[in-house]
């Protein structure tokens, strides 16, 4: 697989930025998991390859210089596929954003084990991420095993969604620690849509009976179940 660390700067200068609701850039390709229904590992492999930190900051700086402000999608299929490199990038990204008054509101896709890594959640929140797409797929552990979605099953053999979720009958505030949070009751039956924090629409899987959020202590990072209407869900 080609090294994306050698990729040139995207030609954002060719775009009429005002016609876009969100910009996009990419940090990594590939995913360490191998879900039966997913083509990502077939296209990009199971060893995530990343751009280096300076390369990424250069892409952020280019968009900033061109006048872009607001929503920015890191289009990785699993942003935390390479946790080491993600944790290397995030502190520098936090510094870059802070020096410019946080010009970008970031969102991405990630696997559900993000909720089990407090350092990553806190670092993403501090860097300006406020939304994450997650592939919940099913709360049934047998279904998850059948599709090789083992990262969604905890050590006790239960669905991580159920074992870490709050009682859906309780309202409650932000979680005291990063965890899969109470269901989002705004999402309706199969095929219904709801709007996320950026105003985008999400379509709920007809087989999905509950949707969760993962948050930091201040509630800024939200990991939401269901798939965006115009894009595939997380790993």
Commentary on this structure:
This protein is of the alpha/beta class and 235 residues long. It is 23% helix and 15% strand. The chain has helices spanning 40-44, 53-65, 83-99, 118-127, 141-146, 160-163; strands at 23-25, 28-29, 49-50, 70-74, 104-110, 129-134, 193-195, 201-203, 223-224, 227-228. The strands form three sheets. Strands 1-4-5-6-9 form a five-stranded parallel sheet. Strand 7 (193-195) and strand 8 form a beta hairpin. Helix 3 packs parallel to helix 4 (118-127). The longest helix is centred in the middle third of the chain and has 17 residues, at 83-99.
| Structure annotation, total helices | 6
* Helix-strand pattern: EEHEHEHEHEHHEEEE
The protein's oligomeric status is single chain
Terminal Cα separation, in Å? Answer: 20 Å
What is the overall shape? Answer: globular
Structural class: alpha/beta
SS elements, strand count: 10
Mean pLDDT figure: 74
Largest beta sheet, briefly?
5 strands, parallel
Strand content: 5-15%
Question: Which terms would index this structure?
Answer:
alpha/beta, five-stranded parallel beta sheet, 235 residues, globular, 6 helices
Summarize the structure.
By secondary structure, this protein is an alpha/beta fold.
Write the layout of secondary structure elements.
Elements: E1 23-25, E2 28-29, H1 40-44, E3 49-50, H2 53-65, E4 70-74, H3 83-99, E5 104-110, H4 118-127, E6 129-134, H5 141-146, H6 160-163, E7 193-195, E8 201-203, E9 223-224, E10 227-228
Helix pairs in contact: 3-4
């Amino acid at each position: 697989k080609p090294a994306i660390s050698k990729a040139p700067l995207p030609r954002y200068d060719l775009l009429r930025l005002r016609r876009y609701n969100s910009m996009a850039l990419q940090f990594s390709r590939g995913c360490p998991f191998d879900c039966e229904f997913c083509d990502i590992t077939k296209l990009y492999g199971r060893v995530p390859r990343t751009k280096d930190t300076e390369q990424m900051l250069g892409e952020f700086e280019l968009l900033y210089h061109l006048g872009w402000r607001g929503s920015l999608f890191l289009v990785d299929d699993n942003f935390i596929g390479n946790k080491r490199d993600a944790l290397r990038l995030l502190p520098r990204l936090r510094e870059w954003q802070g020096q410019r008054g946080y010009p970008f509101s970031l969102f991405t896709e990630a696997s559900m084990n993000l909720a089990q890594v407090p350092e990553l959640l806190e670092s993403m929140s501090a860097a300006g991420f406020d939304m994450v797409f997650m592939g919940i797929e099913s709360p049934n552990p047998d279904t998850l095993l059948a599709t090789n979605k083992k990262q969604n099953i905890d050590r006790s053999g239960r669905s991580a969604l159920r074992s870490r979720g709050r009682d859906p009958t309780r309202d409650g505030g932000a979680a005291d620690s990063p965890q899969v949070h109470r269901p989002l009751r705004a999402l309706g039956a199969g095929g219904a849509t709801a709007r996320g924090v950026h105003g985008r629409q999400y379509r709920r899987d007809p087989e999905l009976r509950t949707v969760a959020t993962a948050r930091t202590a201040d509630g800024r990072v939200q990991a939401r179940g269901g798939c965006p209407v115009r894009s595939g869900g997380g790993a």
